[in-house]
Amino acid sequence: MLILIIIVFGMAIGWVAQAIVGTGDRKPNAQSLIAGLAGSFVGGMIASLIAGDGIDLKPSGIIGSLVGAIIVVLIWNRVAASQN
Fold first, then answer.
1. Could you tell me which residues come within 8 angstroms of residue 17 by beta carbon, excluding any fewer than 6 positions away?
2. 27, 9 contact by CB (below 8 A)
3. What residue ranges do the domains of the chain occupy?
4. How far apart are alpha carbons 73 and 75 in whole angstroms?
5. pTM of the full structure
6. CA pair distance 77, 48, nearest whole angstrom
7. Please, which contacts does 11-17 make with residues 24 or more away whose CB atoms are closer than 8 Å?
């Protein structure tokens, strides 16, 4: 059950990151899932540990997850644009 919650949270964060960056996707897709999970793991973990919250669900981790997902989406878009 925890895995499902993490996947849904990651997809939601990735979708919000895509909306902020402006990729034009209105619904969650594979990119939002991957960006959300990677951003949540890296950004959320780093932000939580810097803030001293540990790995508990705190606002610092959520903000870090969003920032991490935005960075992943930006990198993803840059790589995709360079391949076209």
1. 32, 35, 36, 39, 66, 69, 70, 72, 73
2. no
3. 2-21+29-83
4. 5
5. 0.75
6. 26
7. 11/36, 11/37, 12/36, 13/39, 13/40, 13/62, 13/65, 13/66, 13/69, 14/39, 14/69, 14/72, 14/73, 16/66, 16/69, 17/66, 17/69, 17/70, 17/72, 17/73
Write down the residue that tokens 């989406």 correspond to: 73
> Tokens in use for 78?
């840059």
The full 3-state SS of 14-56, as one line of letters, equals HHHHHHHHCCCCCCCCHHHHHHHHHHHHHHHHHHHHHHCCCCC
Series of mean pLDDT values for 10-residue runs along the chain (84 residues): 73 84 69 78 74 67 82 85 80
44 CB-near residues (< 8 Å, 6+ apart):
61, 62, 64, 65, 68
